[in-house]
C-alpha cells in the first residue's frame, strides 16, 4: 500500500480563514449605520411630512393653523386638539384633521426635545401659501436635527451646511 496524500486542512490554513472571516465581519459591522443614531433623523423627516400635510389642510380650509410641541393648550390660533399625552399638537385645524400627534417610536415620547426660536411658541402653518420662514431643532441625547422652511418651500431637514434635504 502506498501512503496516501495528506487530507484536510492544516491548522495554519484554518486560522487564516477564520482571520479573514473576522476581518470581513468587522468591516461590514462598521459600514452598517447604527439604527439608534438614525432614529432622530427618521422622526425629523416624518415631522417635516406631517407639517406639510397640516400646511395643506390649513390652506385648503382657509384657517389660521399652527403646530406646537407638547400637549394642547390655549393659543391665538383658535381651537386646538387637547390630547393630554400628545408629543405635539395642531392649533386651528378641525378636530378630525387625522394627523399624528405622537412620535413614530413611542419609546421616544418625552425624550425628544423640541426647540423653537426664542419668543416663538408655535409654527405658523397657514392659511396663506407663503408663510414666514421658520425653523425648529429636535434634540435626542447628544444629537440634534434642524427642520425648516423658507416660507415658500416645504418643510425639510436642514443639513449642517444650511441646505434643505428632501427625504
UniProtKB/TrEMBL annotation:
<dbReference type="InterPro" id="IPR002416">
    <property type="entry name" value="T2SS_protein-GspH"/>
</dbReference>
<dbReference type="InterPro" id="IPR045584">
    <property type="entry name" value="Pilin-like"/>
</dbReference>
<dbReference type="GO" id="GO:0015627">
    <property type="term" value="C:type II protein secretion system complex"/>
</dbReference>
<dbReference type="InterPro" id="IPR012902">
    <property type="entry name" value="N_methyl_site"/>
</dbReference>
<keyword id="KW-0472">Membrane</keyword>
<dbReference type="GO" id="GO:0016020">
    <property type="term" value="C:membrane"/>
</dbReference>
<dbReference type="Pfam" id="PF07963">
    <property type="entry name" value="N_methyl"/>
</dbReference>
<protein>
    <recommendedName>
        <fullName>Type II secretion system protein GspH</fullName>
    </recommendedName>
</protein>
<feature type="transmembrane region" description="Helical">
    <location>
        <begin position="12"/>
        <end position="32"/>
    </location>
</feature>
<feature type="region of interest" description="Disordered">
    <location>
        <begin position="64"/>
        <end position="96"/>
    </location>
</feature>
<keyword id="KW-0812">Transmembrane</keyword>
<feature type="compositionally biased region" description="Basic and acidic residues">
    <location>
        <begin position="79"/>
        <end position="88"/>
    </location>
</feature>
<keyword id="KW-0488">Methylation</keyword>
<dbReference type="GO" id="GO:0015628">
    <property type="term" value="P:protein secretion by the type II secretion system"/>
</dbReference>
<keyword id="KW-1133">Transmembrane helix</keyword>
Amino acid at each position: 500500500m502506498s501512503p496516501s496524500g495528506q487530507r484536510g486542512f492544516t491548522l495554519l490554513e484554518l486560522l487564516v480563514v477564520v482571520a479573514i472571516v473576522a476581518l470581513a465581519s468587522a468591516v461590514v459591522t462598521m459600514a452598517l449605520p447604527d439604527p439608534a443614531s438614525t432614529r432622530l433623523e427618521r422622526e425629523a423627516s416624518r415631522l417635516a411630512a406631517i407639517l406639510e400635510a397640516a400646511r395643506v389642510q390649513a390652506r385648503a380650509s382657509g384657517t389660521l393653523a399652527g403646530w406646537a410641541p407638547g400637549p394642547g393648550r390655549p393659543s391665538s390660533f383658535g381651537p386646538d386638539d387637547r390630547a393630554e399625552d400628545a408629543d405635539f399638537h395642531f392649533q386651528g385645524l378641525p378636530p378630525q384633521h387625522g394627523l399624528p400627534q405622537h412620535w413614530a417610536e413611542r419609546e421616544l415620547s418625552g425624550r425628544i426635545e423640541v426647540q423653537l426660536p426664542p419668543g416663538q411658541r408655535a409654527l405658523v402653518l397657514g392659511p396663506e401659501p407663503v408663510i414666514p420662514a421658520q425653523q425648529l431643532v429636535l434634540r435626542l441625547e447628544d444629537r440634534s436635527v434642524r427642520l425648516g422652511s423658507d416660507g415658500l418651500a416645504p418643510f425639510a431637514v436642514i443639513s449642517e451646511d444650511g441646505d434643505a434635504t428632501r427625504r
